[in-house]
Specification:
mainly alpha; elongated
Length: 145
Amino acid sequence: MASRNLVPGSERRVRQLWLVLGWMLVLFVIYLSVTPAPMQLPVEQGDKFAHTLAYFVLMSWFANLYEVLAQRAMFALGFIVLAIALEFIQRWTGYRTFEIADMVAGTVGVAAGWLLAPPRLPNYLHWLETLCRTGQKNNPPAGES
């Protein structure tokens, strides 16, 4: 069952790398949500787009790692709770604003990330692994031929 949970056919160390990178993305979203100087997108309602994109990336990443419906549901719920909790934390900081629209944008991102996850679209992490393995086969280390 464990092999169904993570990217099919990947090696253990690659799986661990994807998980570490995924949790680093979660920490990055948290940092961006509480920093006094957040990145700004130079478009109207850019922060809503940024929230949607951030939570889309998180959900998509973990949905590519976990195929089991119950696991995906737990990640979706967790990311929605994170989006809501971070808005309350922003209110308490005194230098960020609390907006319900940001909670909605995060939820939309989570839903889109789940809807566009495998099997509807290909597993991009598996594709990256395949690409890297193909590149390694075609480019042996120096001294090997």
